[in-house]
Amino acid sequence: MKLLICSLAVMALGMFAAGCAEETPAYSANERYGQISRNWHTEAEQMNDDVDSFMLLRPESRLSVWNVYHQN
Length: 72
What we know:
mainly alpha
């Protein structure tokens, strides 16, 4: 039983000691906020297209009237 407890303790310590805690994030907070903001903006434009299509205000199409751009 002592061997099992010791091995579990060593495995838990190994998981906390290596990996995620020491890595840096891929994007800064401002970059991530910009990505989320652009995504919400695009989703809102697509929702407007869906509502217009549902209410028959515009003919159905797979094309959007919005300027869609992809920024790297």
